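Our consortium's second objective concerns turning raw sequence data into structural hypotheses that experimental partners can test. To show how far this objective has progressed, the report includes one record in full. It was chosen at random from the queue rather than selected for favorable results. The single chain below, 362 residues long, was entered without modification.
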Amino acid sequence: MKLTPLTIGKYRIEKPIIQGGMGVGVSWDRLAGSVSKEGGLGVISAVGTGYYEHKEHVKKLIAQRPYEVENFYSKEALFAIVANARKICGDKPLAVNILYAINDYGRVVRDACEAGIDIIITGAGLPTNMPEFTEGYPDVALVPIVSSAKALKIICKRWSQRYNRLPDAVVLEGPKSGGHQGFTYEQCSMPEYQLENLVEPVVAEAKEWGNIPVIAAGGIWDHADIAAMIELGASGVQMGTRFLGTHECDAHDNFKEVILASKAEDIELIKSPVGYPARGVRTHLIDLVDKREGPAIKCISNCVAPCNRGVEAKEVGFCIADRLADAYEGNKEFGLFFTGTNGYRIDKLVGVKELMDELCSE
């Protein structure tokens, strides 16, 4: 199948492949800039920007970790990441992923608009008030992430009534993606919640609101998978895991080594302080957490609202901000390494151009 361009708001994506946003520090300027340069849509993760360039943008540190929300989600660092990505991709469309569950969501959205981002993608909850934070930036396209037609209907109805606008596109994410899921543990393995069974009802709902482009995500690996989603009615796809295996991926070399060494049975659902199951690699950290012998839990970044200032972190046995930061810094012992179900299939590192060419090749 010959892939055709994807339109999101006023932006034309020549190759209908969106690189999934991955934090902390997995998809920042190098990866996102490179994907956009090659005709896809590069996506910067807004999570943990305070770690960018060795924390030089952080005003206050506690034990070498960004202290409080304004430092963990550093405005200065986000501006620098966007500017450096632009040095790679120029004026081609560039996106940022901002989780709805974070503290200071509205401020981070406004920061992204001020930084000159073109498209904002938001999941980890239903972003029913997302448009109010982009007032004054009519050209910024808004893309919520959903897991069902019902969720899309709720968002469209609320946005239409309150803001007289609709999503410029929607990402439909199935339960094979890396990181946090929009499903229960049980639903993640049930046939009716698999991506291939969700696309058609979500596309049907999207048509009710004026043919909103639907972007399928979660477990997509190759051109055949992309073609299958488009045949079901999707306008494009989002892929995160494949981009972990690129030279340009911003993750530490040790992070990539963990993914390269993983086997299918190593990738599993993990309890998370965010309140959703999350998918990643079983490592020494998870073994320690299972035995309640993991690193000390001290909430200093106050990163996500559902964690309730570390209450949920103590329940599940780890601080997600600290453990994702360890992964970004290359700590294999205490790092948390997210990947989709196909992570074990990555057997070598390639360039973003090579990967994009492969994905688009018939």
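The partners drew two points from this record. The two ends are 6 Å apart (CA to CA). The chain has two domains: 6-253+345-360, 255-328. Both points have been shared with the crystallography group to help prioritize constructs.
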